[in-house]
Amino acid sequence: MHTLDQYRGTVVACRYCPPPSLARPETLVALKARFYDAIARVVLDQTHLQVGITGVNSKDPAFVRLDRLDLRNHVDWTSFEDSNHLEPLYLQSMQTQLDSGYDHLSTRPGWRVIVLHKVGAESMEVLYVWNHPHHDGMSGKIFHQNTKSKRNGSDSWTLDLPDPSDKLPPNPEILSPWPMTPAFLLKSLWKELKPSWIFPLHSTHATWAPIQGSPFTTRFRNFMVDNDTVTKVVGACRVHRTTLTGLVQVLVLVSLTSALEDMNGFTSKTPYDLRHILPSNTPQYPCLQPKELMFATIRSKMLARAIDASLSADIMEIIWSVSARVRREIQARLDSGVRNDLIGIMKLVSDWRSQQQSEAHKMRYLSWLVNNLGEGWLLRRAELVLSAEVPSAALSVSIMTVKGGEMCITCSWQDCTVDLGLGERLMGDLKRWLNETGS
Fold first, then answer.
1. d(CA 116, CA 126)
2. Do 139 and 109 touch, CB atoms closer than 8 A?
3. What class, spelled out in words, does domain 172-437 have in CATH?
4. What's this model's pTM, rounded to 2 decimal places?
């Protein structure tokens, strides 16, 4: 997708709070040294941060071993004196990283770290940005948590890299069998291969947001929810036997149903982490611990809904009912483990580049996705932002929460596909309804 310019990058941004002894202006050099040390340790621990990608334009791209890595190609530290510069710098850096590609993929791993630091301040903003073939969204969270915990690493800009051959995690379809029933296989293949010129589109296709390859510019908006409200919202979700993810899925549905009155239905998805179902310490990979590794292990649950919902007095009854159903469907998918999953069909695709090119010529299927990375520890603020993904969901809603702190809700979209007013209306609805739910 990166070489076809269908997707550029993902960002997990967190606010770090250095020890008070390193927060003074005169200790800036020591603070930077400590931070680079931590990055070096994480790189040496995580094999996917050490490898390049070769054959990116071929049918068979592959990770390639690199002998060394220069941190100067991956870490950009900006210090400033005026605290008023932080917010515009943060937004500018986020926009730049979401729309920036990756060069020298065969000789340089596809990840970057952007540090925004007001000299003498008690905190600094750290943006971790990566090319999705290297790993998934949960890996971004793992990166920050590991960086916060690492100490006393290398004091050199250039790292000599070990041979990662015996530690590089295999693709999920290789690591585990993915059994499929004949009915599931046939239904999946028919959905993919049936001629659209004979069989009409389903009413839940995102006909309101046709796929456009260019121009590629990501727009995003965010808002924060305080800890007291988050606690009350999560408590209400438990009372109604749902989760925050299920609730946000339905709130998006209600907002878009009101905004796009000509639509008869929508399809969305919820990505979730495979680490909890992939095997550990297998005979072929005895050192493999999926829960600790940064790699790409995402699958998703599709939701198709056509609901006549309006902002009426009983809207919450509808929301809680559908949210509980969403939660049950996601749980059922999780409980099924590796059975009847689209990953099992991946081995049937011989050329993913051609596959993605063909996807760009179809009608968009997904209207939105909701991605929840859960809680992060040892941080003051955390935010997940996805760049536009040309053939996938028109709107990407991301949730990330600091343990005992604020929750950040972000929505991103491709500028030429989604009207700015629609994106801002959606975010206004979500902010208002979440605060009302937690009041």
1. 6
2. no
3. alpha beta
4. 0.85
